[in-house]
Write a structure and sequence with these properties.
2 copies of one chain form a homodimer. The first copy, chain A, is an alpha+beta fold and 304 residues long. The first copy, chain A, folds into 2 domains: 258 residues, 2-Layer Sandwich (BirA Bifunctional Protein, domain 2), CATH 3.30.930.10; 34 residues, no CATH class. Chain A is built from 11 helices and 12 strands. The first copy, chain A, has a 7-stranded mixed beta sheet. Chain A has a 3-stranded antiparallel beta sheet with strand order 4-6-5. In chain A, helix 2 packs across helix 10. At the A-B interface, strand 1, strand 2, helix 2, strand 3 and strand 4 of A face strand 1, strand 2, helix 2, strand 3 and strand 4 of B.
């Protein structure tokens, strides 16, 4: 008896994903991208009443900002630094010689000023801090970008390069806490309209190393992170499609973010994984989009 | 007398660009992105009659494919390799120690399987080669992705991370030559509808090192590259907004791409720099988009 096809194999066979030879790095068809754009719009529409400022960062950020963010303390294993050749003609000949002999040629690559964006909101905080204290009532931003995580995997819902749409709130602690509470409701309402099964749960980030367990426990005990989870790869494995994060004053302290009243600003962000949510929809409603429930299609593309 | 503001400064002052502290790396406002999406759609519409297959790659590609492409021979200085921390708890402590002392901590980063995409079409050829010989009449693809070039610059039209939309043709040499000739006309027609001044000229790529001049001269003498140039940064400096490239059998030989008849396939690509074209429009029509000529707005957004 042959093995059942994996979900990844089904996606490849249907032409929605195209293999690039690297785990977690796929090209996608126009049909898949149409689905991504529907989810992107539906999520942005949820945030529209708050009139967020739309900002779009490229998929890379300032290395100095990244270093200062604290990411390397918690998740060094996931970050991607961008390196470049800065050598002479002689160095170039040496590089090409190694390449021809199938030897490692990358040792001479030097770190540039750019690091791949690890989460859509990381480049935002230093940029907002440059503007001075927040306006009265705080500020809200709408972000979307490619993010990189070095975690090669056979799970199609765990890519190395993927898109995240985020709504970010900066302000006084009560404003930020209220924002996250409202979005816990909104996020569930969206996934209900998309007719997907889900669980909402306390969660923690994948902190690195020996101290990681302690940090994860602290994050859980303070209820700083919630995830909305959907079975995607298979029925027994839940994947986070949305996350609802309260950072307390972590980024406020790091970047000197101040409220209108001069207090250290608190921050929160709500993120949706666009590819993950697309995969959840395919998993639960099938590969034939035209046969999806009318309400789902209306939510995504205003059809019906 | 104070210096006149540069175009970059005007973009920052108008809030269309947001400084990230790294040359050639900017966040953009929603208004700027609306402009990008208009150009993107107008360019795709030009290619629609050819019914290209839409494929979207993430901003990184398979390092093995990149190595085999020949890019490192010609443009080693522009490429961005992605590196990651793969060490132990002890290595992590060492990294954090260096970071705290403001020493270079990047020496231990190891090259991953991912390289930033240097041009939208580079990841395509090996993927198409996997499918076997081309169908009769060849194949046409519509691509769009972020690209990376390590060339930090004060020129807002020369970013390190920028978006390129490409139409790529693979087939017999006559099919591919005819495609490029048709697009030389179409590209000019589009820029005319956008009411931008331009020059069409023979061009060459920025080949590296001592042999670079010879390769550039060969590319010119064979008329392999044309560029459509618009003054953007100032009146005296022309910037390529579109390029029309005939690769002869370079990628066909490299990847074993075959036509329906079993010959080595030829390839050509037409690329538009989305940010560059947006900047050209702002430069020539002003910062108030609502005051732009009706025909330009109709071409971009179907308005009027």
């Amino acid at each position: 008896m042959s093995e059942p096809r994996t979900f990844l194999q089904e996606l490849l066979d249907a032409g929605l994903f195209i293999d690039t030879g690297v785990k977690g790095l796929y090209a996608r068809s126009g049909a898949f991208e149409h689905l991504i754009s529907g989810i992107d719009s539906a999520f942005a529409a949820l945030g529209a009443p708050e009139r967020p400022e739309v900002v779009r960062f490229p998929p890379g950020m300032n290395r100095r900002h990244f270093e200062k963010s604290g990411y390397l303390k918690s998740f060094p294993q996931l970050a991607g630094t961008v390196h470049a050749f800065c050598g002479s003609h002689h160095d170039h000949q040496d590089l090409l010689g190694k390449l021809a002999e199938d030897e490692d040629w990358t040792g001479g690559q030097a770190a540039t000023d750019v690091v791949l964006t690890p989460a859509a909101c990381y480049p935002l905080y230093p940029v907002v801090a440059q503007r001075g204290p927040l306006p009265k009532g705080g500020a809200t931003f709408d972000l979307q970008s490619y993010c990189f995580r070095h975690e090669p995997s056979d799970d199609p819902a765990r890519m190395q390069l993927f898109r995240m749409h985020e709504i970010v709130r900066l302000g006084a602690s009560d404003e930020v806490v209220e924002f996250r509470a409202a979005w816990l409701e909104r996020g569930q309402a969206l996934i209900n309209r998309l007719e997907l099964p889900f669980t909402l749960d306390l969660a923690n980030d994948p902190f690195f190393g020996r101290g990681g367990k302690l940090m994860a426990a602290g994050q859980r005990s303070q209820q700083l992170k919630f995830e909305l989870l959907v079975p995607i790869r298979n029925d027994d494995q839940l994947t986070a499609c949305l996350s609802f994060n309260y950072h307390q004053d972590h980024f406020g302290e790091t970047w000197g973010l101040r409220t209108h009243d001069g207090d250290v600003a608190h921050t929160a962000c709500i993120g949706v994984g666009l590819e993950r949510t697309a995969l959840a929809l395919i998993r639960h409603h099938g590969f034939d989009v035209s046969a999806w429930p009318t309400g789902v299609r209306r939510t995504l593309w205003g059809e019906g």
